[in-house]
Design a protein that fits this description.
Elements lengths: L3 H25 L8 H12 L14 H14 L1 H9 L12 H24 L13 H26 L16 H28 L2 H21 L2 H19 L4 H24 L7 H6 L1 H15 L9 H5 L2 H12 L31 H8 L14 H9 L1 H18 L10 H15 L6 H22 L14 H7 L9 H4 L1
Helix pairs in contact: 1-2, 1-4, 2-3, 2-5, 3-5, 5-14, 5-17, 6-7, 7-8, 7-9, 8-9, 9-10, 10-12, 14-16, 16-17, 18-19
Length: about 500
Amino acid sequence: MLAAPRKHGIALYLLLNVAFFLVLACGCGIGEPQDPRLLYLIVLFALCSSCVIDNDGLNGRYALLAIFLGTYFLYFGVQDVTNLFTGLSDGAVGSQLSVSEQIILAGLICMIVAYRIAVSVANPAGRIRRSNDWSVRSSLSVGTALWALGIAATYYWYFFVVTDKTLEGTKGLAQLSEWTTSGLILGQMLEPIGLLLIVYAWRSTGSKPLLALLLAILVVQSLCGFVIDIKGMALIGGTLVIVTVTQMDGRIPKAWVFGVAIFIYTAFPVFQAYRAVVTGNGVARTEVLANLGKTIDKVLEAKERVNSGHDRAQTLFERLSLKASVEMIVNGTEKGVPFQEGYTLTPILAAFIPRLIWPDKPDVPTGRLVNKAFLLGEQEETYISPSHLGEMYWNFGWAGVLVGMTVVGALCGIVARFNLGECRTVTRLLIFIVTVNQVIHGFESSIAACYVIWMRSLAAIGILHLVFARAPVTGRLPASRTREESAADTPPRRAPLFANLLR
């Protein structure tokens, strides 16, 4: 007989799919009754909702799979659902799945199967493991230092090196040495890690002063993201809080989710207007900061015009949709665009060879290659995101998708071994967050750029763990252990600061 949790998961799975079918039925009343997207959406949702069958908590072994599948549906399904209700057509005819839709579904199946196999092999019984953890003092001090260093590097980079998005604005790069460039890039990479450590310290203690510090940091990041026109920087703070609390406590922080949703709803149109009336006209960021009040007034006046009408800016769902990029690559290769045969993936092989040692290390600008190969932009410097799925197909066709998505699923399944449902530590949280950011959220970008950062980040997390993690002490309890169990295992004296290095 099926275990009770699995029986409940199957019941929930069936309920969700019936509800989604009814939603599509309502959409068909507005659009075409024989819309070819129906079969695709039904199968896609059935696959993406399969994570609820073995749901073992918001921070369990299948949490990473749930995030991947939810994001996958957002990338490849939500826009079709909204178009179904608005009556917009994607140009498809008949009831058959298109080649791109077959690729999207087949790749997803490979990912799900590989993930489940990796999870079952890595830890079939879900055994609890004791792990060393950072102290609150270490989390706060290191986190604050890394965040301050990162925000300073970000400010210098975007205000004095790359002053705007034009070719003229990037000339400052030529004046930097290899050491300075590498240091600034590394500093920007450390910023979210520092923020994450601060969130962890706040959540571990519940300190109100730390909450005030965290809110101040989020305001600074939002303002900086607005001025430099990077929405992700403005959103990453609230997102990290939600993910961290969910993983540490095994529950969704409703107040934070509501706050981030309101921020997205109100701020996204403002960011769109800012891009159209300020950065789109090549205005330097230093000038924006010097006249911030006037700039905000100008953006608010243009918000309605930019976000409505025939020439409006893309909506959030339109910007997130990756289905069109896969269709573009599939159609282009059918018309003669040559396959890359692994060329765009070569930077992964040199991930741990710094440019300081190999100054002539080859750089593969995948986004520009996509633009040039498929003749999408007038300017050669324009970056067109291929999406990981599209890039897999562009390299090796169907084989690239099937093998590539299998590898992605296996990697995510191995990472799921370090879930916070079994043991709550800074290291596990960092591994989880970096994987979500680079492997899942980065799925819309190019493969090498994301996986090189992911591999380097895991190496850095390992070093940080060796330096700062130490044996559990009283007051720092893994979420899955009772206080009595922890007290019985707690060493009689405080572990040395660099315990891992002394073993």
